[in-house]
Sequence to fold (601 residues):
Amino acid sequence: MLGKGILKGMAETAKNFAGSYVSKERLTTVEYPEERIAPAENARVFPFLVYDTDNWEAGLRCVACQICEKECPPKCIYIEKSKDKKPDYVGKQQFYPTRFDIDISVCMSCQICVEVCPFEAIKMNTEFELATDDRFGGLLLDRSQLAKSNEYYHQIHPTEAAEVDARLAEEKAKLDAKAKAAEAAAAKALADKAAAPASPTPAKPEGGQS
Amino acid sequence: MIDKADQIFVLLQHWLISFLPAALQQPAAVLLGVIGIISAFPALFAITTIFERKGLARIQNRFGPNRVGPFGVLQPLADAVKSLTKEDIVPASSNAFVHFLAPVGLVTAVFMGFAVLPVGRNMVLVDMDSGLLFFFAMGASTEVSIFMAGWSSRNKYSLLGAMRAVAQMISYEVVLLLSSVAVVMVSGSLSLTKIVEAQNHYTGVFPHWYIFTPWGLAAFLMYAIAAMAETNRSPFDLPEGESELVAGYFTEYSGFKFALFFLGEYLAMLSISGLGATLFLGGWSAPFSFLTFIPSWVWFFSKVVLSIFVFIWIRGTLPRLRQDQLMNFAWKFVLPFTLIDLFVTALWRFMGEGLPRWIVCSAILLAAYFVMGRAGLRRGRIGPRSYRYAE
Fold:
């Protein structure tokens, strides 16, 4: 019969109309400034620099190797390498960036810097409320603005951060083991030398080349 | 007391003009009536816009505007300020005078229609003997404005929109007129006040509204369809189909002129709902005899608001028709059905009181509805699409 479909449709819309006042689940709108949902775990906006310990300046994982600067497709990263060295997270002496700027007006959020970084030092942030009234200075983020603690990283990307931490711990353990072995070998060599001072040939079967 | 509430605006008018010398009283009374109309209906328009946006939003499970004022009720004010302060752009190649005249003419013509609408007992600006005719004459002259707007803009979308609007409005104007002719045939008058008076009787508690007769119901349905098409409302909003024509005939309008078109469209909706209420829903008369203590103008405006709600409801439900569907529907279903309804009305008029005329009229109309719904709207057999390429 003509008009049956229209009546059916009107019943449906009436149900929606009334239902939206009764059940809150129907209204999927999140009224943004007042209420907000946490960004998805694999959301990415712009990069940030990870630091360990409490001091962001000393704890930066970045060693100013400048790989990200070279790989960045739109060239939005600017790094100045330090003249001196400071110990990194495993205690090894490394260079550090005296300047590390990212122009987020140029950045295209491709994540290539994150993928090429051998030190797990640069990661993607999920912060998106970056509007500013200064479109040059306000969008050029420097070291202090980019540095975020490892805890923050854990907060925004828990799974990924746990993986990174496990990998770093494994590496550190490997290095420690190596150092220990080297130490032991050195001690052994020293002992050998002390035991046989007359022997002209310091025969070393293995180890030692740390 | 009840009479006072019912006649409050009439008494107010009399009291105000009593301060003037006798020679000025007649013009002042008319002026006061005009002021009443041009303040009441645009106010209703403002309410309608927020009502529509909220209603549509709720139909689509959204919140709708809720930023300006509590629950967004002050949104129309914000919109008004916005449209008043916007730049008014006139295209360089347009016919500037006609471009300016079109929205003004539209709003003027739409406002003229309200002059003959009885909004309450004794509340009609001009009690014309041929009020219905005047109303339709004014309604038809909006088409001129629309075509002026489309033509003077010198824009293909505007012109196409205007052509569509005129084609559609002429097709449905016929139906609109013929469905009201049924009412004229029974009430025997073209005066809208007389038509309301004819319906303002009660059997028991039930009123003698024309919608409660078989021919009246059929005519009302056809009138409602035609009214929707006349006012370019969804699902008949082809003249302003955004996906095809940007905004149709008012594509090149901005600022206050755009607002005037918007106003004209909604006022046309209000006036055509008002006329529908007058013709079929008993105008300002109460739906039950024991409710007559409520002022007549309250009844009129609640009927208008109810029709507006149905307009919005339908807009939220139905998708836009295609041009050929629109024309098929008008000429193959609505128009023949209205003609049959005219015949049934004549039958009703001459069969005299009693049950037989109810049965006969209902049977004819139902049969016509079924047959025409099937035959009139049968899909034509279209073969596989063939292409011919240029050599």
